[in-house]
Amino acid sequence: MLRDVAVLALPGAHAFELGVFCEFFGIDRTDEGLPGYDFALVSATGASVPTRHGFAVQARHGLQRLESADLIGVPATDPGVRQPEELYEALRAAVGRGARVLSICSGAFVLGEAGLLDGRRCTTHWRYAAELARRYPRSSVEVDTLYVDEDPVITGAGTAAGIDTCLHLVRKLQGSAVANDIARRMVTPPHRDGSQTQYVKRPSPKDRTGRLAPTLAWMESHLEQQLTVDGIARRAHMSPRTFARRFLQETGSTPLQWLTGQRVLLAQQHLENTDEPVTAIAARTGFGSADTLRHHFVRRVGTTPHDYRRTFRGRPNQDR
Question: How far apart (Å, rounded) are the C-alpha atoms in residues 153 and 121?
Fold first, then answer.
């Protein structure tokens, strides 16, 4: 369920991270066939909320608005500022009744103060990771990831990783077609895996103009084959070591991690749009066997192919 979205307007909020939530869930795209969201900005400190940039935002709703939310967004703010206790209580109550919470960057500190990171993996911007781990030792802070999904608590790393985190959640709950269409509207890559490193030597090329662009395109069109790093490196006219290094520089991921992510995405599309059995999809996506597909699918998506198809097509798969 992802219909009712409430986003916290916190004093000192960072405009970009707050804007990511507004862009994702506050724009009506129903005329394009995309889901609509009942979106609200919520404040615990009054209607006018100052940001860190010298301007204020108007939040029309108080904390009671969190009581109906399917998703509560927590944007970045000053990690040294303690919020009203009523806010932490409202977040705990929301998670207790089944709502999801999603933080971006230093918003993770708000979840930590609410006790929602205890016993869970989480992430934040790399600059704050050590402090997050120090303050909340019962959590497990993953420094070098874009986002961590410990449903119902999802945490994203800094700034642009908030886009990846929201796309991940939309893809998980509403399917890859919806996530891809939103990404297209936002002119952003539709998927970067959560395990991708926060920092790479060069930005991940959005327009695929790097030296590896032809190789990446070829890999995408041959996912059903049993590809190896050595074989792909030969095709790219590089040694395996040089190829692996350049691949990490241009994509932020290892070749095998990237392949696995693309194969899972392709499997999601087949599960959403075809009636093919899992065994056939496993062959089409290069996993070879249904067991291997299920293993990687559960790790990446958090559910089995069978349950994923049942969610998005309304009927069970033909095999488990």
Answer: 9
How far is C-alpha 199 from the chain's CA centre?
Answer: 16
Contacts of 50 (CB under 8 A, 6+ apart): 11, 12, 56
pLDDT of the chain, 320 residues: tens digit per residue:
899 999 999 999 999 999 999 999 999 999 999 999 999 999 999 899 999 999 999 999 999 999 999 999 999 999 999 999 999 999 999 999 999 999 999 999 999 999 999 999 999 998 899 999 999 999 999 987 889 999 999 999 988 899 999 999 999 999 888 988 888 888 776 666 555 444 433 333 444 456 888 999 999 999 999 999 999 999 999 999 999 999 988 887 899 999 999 999 899 889 988 999 999 999 999 999 999 999 999 888 878 999 888 877 654 444 44
What kind and span of H or E run contains 289?
A: none
Are residues 292 and 281 in contact, defined by beta-carbon separation less than 8 angstroms?
no
The residues near 76 (Cβ < 8 Å, ≥ 6 apart) are 13, 14, 16, 17, 18, 104, 105, 106, 107, 125, 158, 159
Task: Please name the residues in contact with 129: beta carbons below 8 A apart, sequence gap of 6 or more.
Answer: 123, 141, 143
CA-wise closest residue to 264 among 163, 158, 185, 190: 190
Distance, in Å, from the CA atom of 159 to the CA atom of 161, rounded to the nearest integer, reads: 5
- Find the angle CA(170)-CA(174)-CA(178) to the nearest 5 degrees: 75
Q: What angle do CA 170, 176, 178 make, to 5 degrees?
A: 65
Q: What is the pTM of this model?
A: 0.68
CB 137 within 8 A of CB 159: no
